[in-house]
Design a protein that fits this description.
- The protein is of the alpha/beta class.
- It has two domains: 8-233, Rossmann fold; 237-309, Alpha-Beta Plaits, CATH 3.30.70.100.
- The protein has twelve helices and 14 strands.
- The strands form three sheets. A six-stranded mixed sheet has the order 6-7-8-3-9-10, sandwiched between helices. The protein has a four-stranded antiparallel sheet with strand order 2-1-4-5. It has a four-stranded antiparallel sheet with strand order 12-13-11-14, sandwiched between helices.
- Strand 9 (214-219) and strand 10 form a beta hairpin.
- 39% of the residues are buried.
């Protein structure tokens, strides 16, 4: 692969899952295209069912696209699958190591399966255990590890053969804040010190904001926006006003919002006893008082009113039309399971 060539290229990817038991087919990916320069952390961001895991499965040769093509580390995922597998590391959402073996044994076996000699495998295992702050636990069975330690070991196992591209599928799901921060540090180090290309799928907005050099926002298998976190947030001019609602009637809230000229891109989400009003404004300090007055006049109960500069949540809301957790898991996830 030429030095300046993209590490990953996806062109018009389509994935259709055929229905089971008379269920209709589901189009999980719909002409999805993007490219990733080498040595970058590239985030695929979207809620469950958006198509992130389907994309990862295609790029790692675990699934074949229905249409389009993809190239990873200079190799076509369909016609050169073996070469792609040699050039990548993959950390899935599930555990990848044997809980009954020690950390060192797991890494040695992983390296041997990748073709390393016994001597090289042991040397590589020792190096990785040290890099991932697991050297003191090298001879402990993995079943005694904390969740954060197991996750770091999973990543180490994916690096035994020195891949050029590392795929991390929801790497911090289920981790406590301290373990999540430790994993973030490892991902930053891998990208900065080893020039490793990292494809990160996540549904944590903060994780995407802090780790990714560039983000692709995906919804229902389609790309809705792409850019650096800073570029995406800067595209939304002004501030965001959020109102936590109590037992809201959505139509009444929308009617009250229409009486405040300063509000734009108004979204009202109502679910049972709670909900929220979200809107964009040019000047939050001037608009908040008007919003409160409009809600009071309409007899609408609310718990909290806040204003902030744009976040990735606001970016997602702007491009997709609902908040990040505001939609249900698509049928594609069920069909793909």
């Amino acid at each position: 692969m030429p030095e300046n060539s993209p590490a990953v290229v996806a062109e018009d990817l389509v994935k259709v899952y055929r229905g089971r038991s008379r269920r209709p087919a589901v189009r999980a990916l719909d002409d999805l295209s993007f490219s990733v320069p080498p040595g970058r952390v590239f985030g695929l961001l979207g809620p469950n069912g958006a198509g992130k895991s389907t994309t990862t499965k295609i790029l790692t040769t675990l699934s074949r696209p229905t249409g389009g093509r993809a190239v990873v580390a200079g190799h076509d995922v369909a016609s050169e699958a073996a070469a792609v597998r040699s050039a990548i590391g993959y950390v899935s959402q599930g555990a990848a190591t044997d809980p009954h073996l020690t950390a060192a044994e797991n890494l040695v076996i992983a390296a041997r399966m990748r073709g390393a000699t016994t001597v090289d495998a042991r040397s590589r295992a020792t190096h990785l255990l040290d890099e991932f702050a697991l050297a003191d636990a090298a001879d402990r069975p993995v079943k005694t590890f904390s969740g954060g330690m197991r996750r770091r070991l999973d990543v180490a196992a994916a690096l035994v053969h020195r891949p050029r591209v590392l795929f991390l599928d929801e790497p911090t799901t289920g981790l406590d804040p301290e373990a999540r921060a430790a994993m973030w540090n490892e991902i930053r180090r891998l990208s900065a010190e080893e020039s490793l290309t990292v494809i990160l799928t996540t549904h944590y907005m903060e994780e995407a904001d802090r780790l990714a050099h560039e983000l692709l926002l995906v919804d229902r298998g389609t790309a809705v926006a792409q850019g650096t976190p800073e570029e995406l947030k800067a595209a939304l001019h002004g501030d965001t006003v959020r109102v936590a609602l109590v037992e809201p009637d959505a139509e009444s809230v929308r009617a009250a919002a229409r009486t405040v000229p300063a509000l734009r891109d108004v979204v009202v989400e109502a679910a049972g006893v709670g909900g929220q009003l979200i809107a964009r404004v040019d000047d939050a300090s001037a608009a908040v008082g008007q919003v409160i007055s409009a809600l009071d006049a309409a007899g609408i109960r609310y718990a909290q009113v806040s204003a902030s500069h744009p976040t990735l949540d606001d970016v997602y809301l702007h491009f997709v039309g609902h908040t990040f957790g505001g939609d249900a898991v698509s049928a594609a996830e069920e069909v793909a399971a």
